[in-house]
Design goal:
The protein has about 150 residues and is mainly alpha-helical. The protein folds into three domains: about 40 residues; about 40 residues, no CATH class; about 60 residues, no CATH class. The chain is about 80% helix and about 0% strand. The chain has ten helices and no strands. Helix 1 runs antiparallel to helix 2 and helix 6 packs antiparallel against helix 10. The longest helix has 24 residues. The protein is elongated and about 50 Å long. The two termini are about 35 Å apart.
């Protein structure tokens, strides 16, 4: 309510000016107040950020959660929630790696198509690469999710 009164006060003061620049100044202040309100409307609240971190935090590296949280406070809720819902699940990636990792499907799933094809052509790097990937694929998935989030 205070913002509405302040906006009315500013517009009345500017409107009462008799100079030719008064109308221009009126439009400037009115648009400035509208833009600030619009930006405030788009930004997420702290509880919305906490909800998204609780839902999708396990799909990101733990050490990056504070950076992600600060970036999310400046973002739109609906766009951020859709973006985070598209994150790849590290548990599913691990299951793919155990079952059909020697074919490179796990790497293709997280977006490393080149490594997936190389893994396919070498039969999982003579099974050595496949065994190493079982232990490392979850972290690789989290890093890829963070990379796709930070590009937004």
């Amino acid at each position: 309510m205070g913002d509405a009164n302040r906006k009315e006060k500013i517009t009345v003061e500017v409107h009462n000016r008799k100079s030719s620049g008064g109308k221009l100044l009126y439009y400037y202040f009115f648009n400035l107040v509208c833009v600030k309100e619009f930006i405030k409307y788009l930004k997420m609240e702290k509880n919305q950020v906490d909800q998204l971190i609780a839902l999708y935090g396990n799909r990101l590296p733990v050490e990056s959660l504070e950076i992600v949280r600060s970036k999310m406070l400046e973002m739109d809720y609906s766009v951020t929630s859709v973006k985070m819902a598209q994150f790849k699940d590290p548990t599913l990636t691990l299951i793919l790696s155990i079952l059909i990792g020697s074919l490179g499907i796990d790497r293709i799933y997280i977006g490393d198509v080149g490594l997936g094809i190389a893994k396919l052509l070498t039969c999982g790097g003579a099974s050595i690469w496949w065994i190493i990937d079982i232990f490392m694929i979850s972290d690789a998935t989290r890093r890829k999710n963070l990379e796709s989030f930070m590009l937004y």
